[in-house]
Design a protein that fits this description.
73 residues, alpha+beta, 3-stranded antiparallel β-sheet, 2 helices, 44% helix
Length: 73
C-alpha cells in the first residue's frame, strides 16, 4: 500500500508542469528520465528524475549565488 502511494506521488510530480528557470513561464515538462523541455523558450535541460529541480541542485545554486555576491562586494 505504501509503495502504491509513493508511486502515485512520483507519477504526479513527473507530470506536473514546472517554472522554467530561463523564461520564468510554467511550461517546463518532462520528456524522458531527467530530461526537461520548455515549450515556451524551447530550452532542453537535465534535471531530476521526477522533479525539475533536485534538492542538491537548489543547494548548489544558492551557494554559487551567495559566493558571487560576496565576490562582487
Amino acid at each position: 500500500m505504501i509503495k502504491d502511494l509513493e508511486a502515485k506521488s512520483d507519477e504526479i510530480s513527473q507530470h506536473t508542469k514546472y517554472t522554467c528557470s530561463f523564461c520564468e513561464k510554467t511550461k517546463m515538462k518532462r520528456k524522458a528520465v531527467g530530461i526537461w523541455h520548455c515549450g515556451s523558450c524551447m530550452k532542453t535541460v537535465a534535471g531530476g528524475i521526477w522533479t525539475y529541480n533536485t534538492t542538491s541542485a537548489v543547494t548548489v545554486k544558492s551557494a554559487i549565488r551567495r559566493l558571487k555576491e560576496l565576490k562582487d562586494q
